[in-house]
Amino acid sequence: VLLAELTQNKEYLEMLKSFCDYSINEQKRTSKGLIYIDKAGTLSHASNIAFICLEAARMNISTSIYINFAKQQIDYMLGSTGRSFLVGYGNDYPKKVHHSASSCPDLPSPCNWEQYKSNETNPQILYGALVSGPDRNDYYEDRRDEFLYNEVTLDYNAGFQGVVAGLIHFLRPTESEYPLYRSENFK
């Protein structure tokens, strides 16, 4: 992306287009349409690919196709298929994320393995945290001890935030046009 952007070299531009076209048309997906690379960080991989393709769209490469692809991936993450994977967003968001501070009770109560092993909802909500996500069959289990589904990390959020910013830039969504982006969906 950077070489294509900085040099406008035809070779780099074609490599970027080839990567996005392959990702959109041939890369393995779940039955509900999520790009699937690996079980760990499933949503991170999908959002990073969507981000790369939005950058290609910004350089006027297959603009509408790449924007629509990125929107479809983000819509999946925000709940278009029935479950949100963004903590605090939508009706059915992750409530037992694999994050020690989120699973701890309010101070001065102690925090130990008992809280980690609990089946209760995390007492602290990590608003805006993107979990690792589902497996290749769209299966997801909201369990704190199942880190492959429920891990939250900064790098999982990085691509996601970039794609959301890019979609806002390209689409200028209004609440009536894109109800998934309404502020009341954040609980």
TrEMBL record:
Active site feature: H98, D142, E151
Signal peptide (from-to): none
EC category name: hydrolase
Pfam families, per database record: Glyco_hydro_9
EC number(s) reported in the record: 3.2.1.4
Segments forming domain Glycoside hydrolase family: 10-163
GO biological process, one term: cellulose catabolic process
UniProt keyword Hydrolase present: yes
Reactions mediated catalytically: Endohydrolysis of (1->4)-beta-D-glucosidic linkages in cellulose, lichenin and cereal beta-D-glucans
InterPro entries in alphabetical order: 6-hairpin_glycosidase_sf (IPR008928), 6hp_glycosidase-like_sf (IPR012341), Glyco_hydro_9 (IPR001701), Glyco_hydro_9_Asp/Glu_AS (IPR033126), Glyco_hydro_9_His_AS (IPR018221)
Transmembrane segments: none
UniProt keyword Transferase, yes or no: no
UniProt entry keywords in alphabetical sequence: Carbohydrate metabolism, Cellulose degradation, Glycosidase, Hydrolase, Polysaccharide degradation
PANTHER family: ENDO-1,4-BETA-GLUCANASE
Family under the similarity heading: Belongs to the glycosyl hydrolase 9 (cellulase E) family.
Name of the protein this chain belongs to: Endoglucanase
UniProt source species: Ignelater luminosus
